[in-house]
Amino acid sequence: MIITVTLTCLIALIFAALGLAKVLALPKMRELAAEAGFSTAAYRRVGVLELAGAAGVALGPAVPLLGGLAGAGLVLLLVGAAVVHLRKGDPVGRIAPAVVCAALVVGYLVALFV
């Protein structure tokens, strides 16, 4: 239970912060969007998905199905992020955050349903 709560809080915090930064189109997020080949509007939509994922994960301990679906959605977003980085030929250091976050979300999903 402690692992589930810890992962829930960590994931919700990470994705709420990242999603909000993207939705607000903070200068660093606009820069990252351009580097990845996304428009600011497209990056904002990714931010909305991250915010929805954060909310779903936060509610996961109370509504496991919702948490599971939100976690699965975040894993798909993270796989997409890794693919974008790989296609650009980014070094491992640029891909690592997506991989680490995906591992956290997978751990959350396992903890949620075990």
Helix content: over 70%
Radius of gyration: 14 Å
Measured by DSSP, the beta-strand proportion falls in: under 5%
- Give the integer mean of the pLDDT values: 96
Brief write-up:
The protein has 114 residues and is mostly helical.
Describe this structure in words.
With 114 residues, this protein is an all-alpha fold. The protein has one domain. It is 87% helix and 0% strand. Helix 1 packs antiparallel against helix 3 and helix 1 packs across helix 5 (92-113). It is globular and about 40 Å long.
Index terms:
mainly alpha, 5 helices, single chain
Secondary-structure topology with pairs:
Blueprint: H1 2-23, H2 27-36, H3 40-59, H4 64-88, H5 92-113
Helix pairs in contact: 1-3, 1-5, 3-4, 4-5
